[in-house]
């Protein structure tokens, strides 16, 4: 890796982009293979796929009649929606992306899953670029992208119409922009003050293009799932710390306080305010149809819960012009209050077979069975089980255990190297995992699932890539350390590939015998 104080030299751009795009293409091919299987609404697809179709045709989500799922799978898409809007409890960016796939390929499993396959594959490309920026090595950038592509959570979520893959993608884009801004900002200050600063605040940099792009990306992440707010806040503070470090290197006195004013205010505008504007804009369909929500959802159990009042806009006379915009925004704010009540009060007593505590997520303690077809007799559908046994098909949300268990060790090393060696790059995976994992502990009495850890995956992989790169070292001459590092890194990657091949059948709904399935259930908690 490049020394910590220097901006990494991006090696051979043509080679780097070509290799990353080829890896992205292979990743997409694996995700799109038999994408329409299973031919059913798997897990929460029953909500998001239908919500997306409604957004596409009405601009807002309408409720569906009973039995709509079966009719849609039979090819019927008309006459299934009610007139009233539905109380959706997640923002709409991810559902709009699902809707693009449905518009292109139709309202069937392939159509509502193709957007996830595209976005999941692009996530590998962004991972390659981010790791390249942090290591200065095309090779380690490709290793990071490869590890993401070999993870089970990533594979399965790239083949389902759930929201988490979209949130993880936009979050990764936002973090990439923040890291790129750090490099850009350091170079900009060095150009503006080549001889350092002897007094004063140092150069002012009011416009930071990478942070602006980061604000857009974080806004889209929050517009997919609210949990992206935590990493937005965490990396916003990291931007402040990095800006203070840049000013300290120029000789600015009191850099932390001065950076809070000179850099913190513009960074807040670029990241937080831009993200807020993007987030509100993502609700445009809702805002245009605010009167429908005021009519039917302004006095629900969520609005009046624990002494709450119905929406004040519901009883106001209809306004026009800017007054109508104000009313719609106030209604949206009231709607958000109701959604927050749903998440914080109405889910506490819910239970689910596959729910798990966040403390076990990094270890893949409790996977999620997305769909299963049991007891397929021998001779049926190609089943070659022994007499007296059966076959099955399953889709299981389980991360690649070799990758995640190795990632736990790499995260511990990253924490030590960030704090001990003061290498800022290891702070990226540490802060990323902390911001996407620790907040869930305050909700561990709710029904939550291990696949929420997809937001942590890029940072787990970053910790692995950074540590392996450090273990091998930048010196290309044959040495014992380099040999040892190459053996460790190569062996680990091979084990990840073998585990990927081993678990492939239970990630992709392949037909296997019951004994073959048991061989993949390494722990009782996985059954």
Physical arrangement of strands within the biggest beta sheet: 3-4-5
Mean pLDDT: 92
Number of helices: 20
Rounded to an integer in angstroms, the radius of gyration calculated over CA atoms is 25 Å
Helix content: 55-70%
Shape: globular
User: What composes the largest sheet?
Assistant: 3 strands, antiparallel
Number of strands: 5
Structural class: mainly alpha
Uncertain runs are 3-10
Instruction: Report how far apart the termini are.
Output: 42 Å
* N-to-C series of helices and strands: HHEHEHHHHHHHHHHHHEEHHHHEH
| Number of domain units | 4
Strand content range: under 5%
Task: Please describe the structure with a list of short key phrases separated by commas or semicolons.
527 residues, mainly alpha, 3-stranded antiparallel β-sheet, 20 helices, globular
Describe this structure in words.
It is a single chain. The chain has 527 residues and is mainly α. 59% of the residues lie in helices and 5% in strands. It is built from 20 helices and five strands. Strands 3-4-5 form a three-stranded antiparallel β-sheet. A two-stranded antiparallel sheet has the order 1-2. Helix 1 runs antiparallel to helix 5 and helix 16 packs across helix 19. The model is unreliable at 3-10 (pLDDT under 50).
């Amino acid at each position: 890796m490049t020394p910590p104080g220097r901006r990494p030299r991006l090696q051979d751009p043509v080679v780097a982009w070509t290799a990353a795009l080829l890896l992205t293409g292979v990743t997409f091919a694996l995700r799109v293979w038999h994408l329409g299987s299973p031919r059913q609404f798997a897990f929460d697809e029953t909500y998001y796929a239908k919500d997306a179709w409604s957004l596409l045709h009405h601009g807002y989500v309408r409720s569906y009649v009973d039995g709509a799922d079966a009719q849609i799978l039979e090819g019927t898409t008309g006459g299934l929606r009610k007139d009233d809007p539905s109380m959706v409890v997640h923002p709409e960016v991810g559902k709009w992306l699902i809707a693009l796939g449905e518009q292109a390929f139709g309202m069937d499993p392939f159509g509502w899953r193709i957007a996830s396959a595209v976005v999941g594959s692009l996530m590998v490309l962004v991972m390659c670029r981010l790791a390249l920026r942090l290591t200065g090595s095309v090779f380690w950038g490709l290793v990071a992208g490869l590890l993401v592509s070999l993870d089970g959570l990533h594979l399965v979520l790239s083949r389902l119409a759930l929201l988490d893959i979209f949130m993880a993608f936009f979050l990764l884009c936002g973090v990439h922009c923040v890291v790129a801004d750090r490099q850009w900002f350091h170079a900009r200050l060095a150009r503006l003050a080549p001889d350092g600063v002897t007094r004063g605040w140092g150069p002012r940099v009011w416009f930071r293009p990478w942070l602006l792009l980061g604000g857009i990306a974080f806004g889209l992440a929050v517009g997919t799932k609210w949990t992206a707010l935590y990493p937005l806040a965490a990396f916003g503070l990291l931007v402040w710390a990095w800006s203070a470090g840049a000013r300290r290197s120029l000789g600015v006195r009191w850099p932390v306080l001065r950076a809070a004013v000179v850099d913190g205010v513009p960074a807040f505008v670029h990241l937080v305010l831009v993200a807020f504007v993007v987030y509100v804009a993502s609700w445009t369909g809702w805002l245009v149809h605010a009167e429908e929500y005021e009519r039917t959802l302004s006095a629900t159990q969520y609005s009046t819960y624990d002494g709450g009042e119905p929406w004040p806009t519901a009883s106001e006379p209809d306004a026009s012009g800017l007054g109508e915009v104000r009313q719609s925004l106030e209604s949206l704010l009231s709607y958000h209050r109701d959604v927050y009540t749903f998440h914080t009060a109405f889910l506490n007593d819910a239970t689910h077979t596959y729910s798990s505590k966040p403390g076990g997520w990094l270890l893949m303690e409790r996977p999620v069975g997305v769909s299963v077809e049991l007891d397929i007799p021998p001779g049926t559908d190609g089943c070659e089980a022994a007499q007296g046994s059966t076959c099955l098909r399953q889709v299981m949300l389980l991360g690649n255990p070799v990758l995640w268990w190795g990632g736990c060790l790499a995260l511990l090393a990253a924490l030590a190297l960030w704090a001990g060696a003061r290498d800022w790059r290891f702070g990226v995976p540490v802060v990323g995992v902390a911001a996407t994992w620790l907040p869930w502990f305050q909700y561990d009495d709710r029904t939550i699932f291990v696949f929420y850890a997809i937001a942590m995956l890029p940072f787990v992989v970053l910790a692995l890539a950074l540590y392996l790169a450090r273990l091998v070292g930048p010196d290309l001459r044959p040495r014992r350390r380099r040999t040892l590092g190459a053996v460790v890194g190569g062996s680990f990657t091979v084990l990840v590939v073998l585990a990927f091949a081993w678990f492939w059948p239970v990630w992709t709904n392949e037909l296997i015998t019951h004994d073959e399935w048991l061989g993949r259930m390494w722990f009782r908690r996985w059954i």
